[in-house]
Specification:
Strand content: 15-25%
Helix content: 40-55%
Catalytic activity: ATP + protein L-histidine = ADP + protein N-phospho-L-histidine
Protein name: histidine kinase
CATH superfamily of the largest domain: Histidine kinase-like ATPase, C-terminal domain
Strand order of the largest sheet: 2-1-5-4-3
Oligomer: single chain
Number of strands: 17
Radius of gyration: 42 Å
CATH topology of the largest domain: Heat Shock Protein 90
Largest sheet: 5 strands, antiparallel
GO molecular function: phosphorelay sensor kinase activity
CATH class of the largest domain: Alpha Beta
Subcellular location: Cell inner membrane
CATH architecture of the largest domain: 2-Layer Sandwich
Shape: elongated
Organism: Pseudoduganella buxea
């Protein structure tokens, strides 16, 4: 039988990652690649035309080759995944996984054999399994991330829709009051009624914006606490008193259980009051008429424990873990009758953690009420608690006996002119300007005692205006107050560095503004 010519191997064949060889019909190795030779410790010229494939096998493998390998190739023309040992040049046995294909032509045949070291194959299989597991884990993680992003996106959309709703709620009474005043301009009783309505709605809008800014400051780590050693008992009692009218109007019973001994903590009085009020308001919001809200406080080890319990709507178990998440709401926007943006509890959590404490919620499910618990580190009673500051007066400001020259600089004409009117009613002599450059000119011409300056002006901003003013020799006696919607600590520092003497965040509390003007001018 004639031997069929075997083509010369190319570089890819010689360096393939698996062992490759071609044996003639007489069993002699005609071609072999470098990979196979390296595994068994031979050079190609030591095997090609010199050794038979079967000569590389130990005795047991030779018997298998004779009784199974050759008959199978003869009958079916191929062999797949057969493990046999081959003998290394140094006598070691190397387990191999072998595949073979017989090719016949012109009355002759060759056997093309592929080999893989069995231990390498198992290693590759393990690596493949591990890689598949890693891929499945990564896919599951990506799927979870995508689901979380989708949830956050839905919550963002719900938040924007809810924010628009919450902003429209107080704007509607504004429009209604203005319409009533237009129709009955001479009815003094309607003016007093409208003033009360507008003040309530303004307070609601201010509270809404303040909460949003507070959450933003906490998330950015920019909220500073004004710490002092204080007794939680009086603070909690004041919080309950502030919420009592709303609870009574809703037909709810609001009660307290406070210890007689002091609960001393190192904290910010305003922020701790905010925590208590937010929890009480949240409980009242979700408690029906005739329900009860209870605030209790006590000591557990080294912690003061505050609990607010209600007999209200309750919380489903699956929502307990994320009830303190930003913008978290239990019901779709259109089903909500309670209002709110879903930031009150997130604010409670952030403020509590800033104090080194922790907050948790528990509920037996819908219809079974809820309990919110705040834990705050106690301090040793080595320092007397600081007395609470006096509450600011809610009474209207009386006109000043000594007139003050005031310049208002604000590009919002309505904001500027209403502020001018309010200050004139207080007895001040007031002028206004609506751009930064016009404000500079007015400052030099009018020479006010005090300038109230918006920061976001259209040509030069309020900071630059203050810097240019302070560079002028005639500005020495002018008190400059920034009046702006930007109220973070960094904004106040920037105002001070630019030359402002004080900083007020819109909307203005006229009691504080009038007091600040008098203090700055020494009157």
């Amino acid at each position: 039988m004639e031997q069929r010519a075997v083509p010369a191997p190319d570089a890819a064949w010689l360096r393939a990652p698996c062992g490759l060889l071609i044996a003639g019909s007489n069993g002699l190795i005609e071609r072999v690649n470098d990979t196979f030779c390296n595994w068994l410790g031979y050079r190609r010229d030591e095997l090609e035309g010199r050794e038979r494939f079967v000569d590389l096998m130990p005795m047991g493998a030779r018997l298998f080759h004779l009784t199974h390998w050759l008959p199978l190739l003869q009958m079916q023309g191929s062999i797949a995944e057969v493990q046999l040992d081959l003998v290394h040049r140094d006598g070691r046995r190397v387990p191999m996984l072998l595949n073979a294909l017989r090719r016949e032509a012109d009355g002759s045949f060759t056997d093309e054999i592929g080999a893989m070291v069995a231990t390498d194959r198992k290693k590759y299989e393990r690596e493949l399994i591990n890689a598949r597991q890693r891929a499945e884990t990564a896919e599951a993680g990506q799927r979870g991330l995508n689901e979380a992003l989708a949830r956050e996106d839905r919550r963002k959309d719900e938040f924007i829709a809810t924010l628009a709703h919450e902003l429209r709620n107080p704007l509607a009474p504004f429009a209604n009051v203005l319409e009533v005043w237009r129709q009955r301009p001479d009815d003094a009783s309607l003016w007093h009624w409208g003033q009360a309505v507008l003040q309530r709605q303004l307070d609601q809008l201010t509270h809404l914006v303040d909460d949003l800014l507070e959450v933003s400051r906490i998330s950015q780590g920019k909220l500073d606490l004004r710490r002092e050693v204080l007794d939680l008992g009086p603070l909690l009692a004041n919080a309950v008193e502030s919420v009592m009218p709303a609870a009574a109007a809703a037909g709810q019973t609001l009660s307290t259980r406070l210890p007689e001994r002091p609960l001393l903590v190192d904290g910010d009085r305003t922020r701790l009051t905010q925590i208590a009020c937010n929890l009480l308001n949240n409980a009242s919001k979700f408690t029906p008429e005739g329900g009860a809200v209870t605030l209790s406080a006590g000591i557990d080890g080294d912690f003061a424990v505050i609990e607010v319990a209600d007999t209200g709507a309750g919380i489903p178990p699956e929502h307990l873990e994320r009830i303190f998440d930003m913008f978290s709401q239990l019901t779709p926007p259109l089903e909500r009758s309670t209002g709110g943006l879903g930031i009150g509890l997130a604010l409670v959590k952030g403020l509590t953690e800033l104090h080194g404490g922790a907050v948790a919620a528990r509920s037996n499910g819908l219809g079974h009420g809820s309990v919110f618990q705040v834990r705050l580190p106690l301090v040793a009673p080595t320092q007397a608690p600081t007395d609470a500051p006096a509450e600011p007066s809610d009474q209207a400001v009386t006109p000043r006996r000594q007139s003050t020259r005031v310049l208002v600089i604000d590009d919002n004409v309505d904001a500027a002119e209403t502020l001018v009117m309010a200050l004139e009613l207080l007895g001040h002599t007031v002028r206004s300007a609506h751009t930064g450059l016009a404000g500079l000119a007015a400052l030099e011409q009018f020479r006010p005692d005090c300038a109230l300056v918006d920061i976001g002006l259209p040509d030069i901003d309020g900071y630059e205006l203050a810097r240019r003013t302070r560079a002028a020799p005639w500005s020495t006696d002018i008190a400059m107050i920034a009046v702006t919607g930007w109220g973070q600590e960094a904004d106040k520092q920037a105002a001070a560095q630019a030359g402002f003497d004080a900083h007020f965040t819109k909307p203005i509390d006229f009691n504080r503004l009038d007091a600040a003007i008098g203090e700055l001018l020494g009157r």
